[in-house]
Design brief:
Helix content is 0%, strand content 39%. It is mostly beta strands and 137 residues long. It has no helices and eleven strands.
Length: 137
């Protein structure tokens, strides 16, 4: 990703599937910046969702159902069905991410099936969860 990097807003899991939350992370980037796939996979969608350009990469070797990363507002530069490597350019950031307080940014999401996950977990940086000590708790 080109431009000034930096986390603008973290993932906030909704309490219920339909409830409010932030289903991804917002990363600072300049309009026109190259957007790269976070992991190897296949471009499975490139088009408009609710009037905004989105690119989705499915990561087949990531379990069942496979993980999918989403990138918006991103205009795709490779056709659907293209196999991509981690770090390979998949599109360009377009202006208009209104949820970033008037500045350009990339909204990056991660899903397994229909469940949203923290995309920073791909890099071991997501929210930590503490488990109880001992058995049977």
């Amino acid at each position: 990703m080109g431009g000034p990097g930096g986390l603008i807003k973290r993932f906030e899991a909704p309490a219920k599937a339909w409830a409010a939350g932030h289903r991804g992370v917002d990363l600072a980037a300049d309009s026109g910046a190259d957007i790269r796939s976070a992991a190897p996979g296949v471009v499975s969608f490139s088009g408009l969702v609710a009037g905004r350009p989105v690119v989705t990469v499915t990561h087949p070797a990531s379990g069942t159902p496979p993980l999918r990363t989403t990138y918006l507002p991103v205009s795709g530069t490779v056709p659907v069905g293209t196999t991509v490597l981690a770090g390979e350019v998949i599109g360009r950031l377009t202006p208009g991410a209104a949820h970033c307080a008037g500045r350009d940014c990339l909204h990056w999401g991660l899903l397994r099936g229909d469940r949203y996950l923290d995309p920073l977990a791909l890099f071991g940086v997501g929210a930590a969860r503490l488990l109880p000590l001992g058995r049977g708790r």
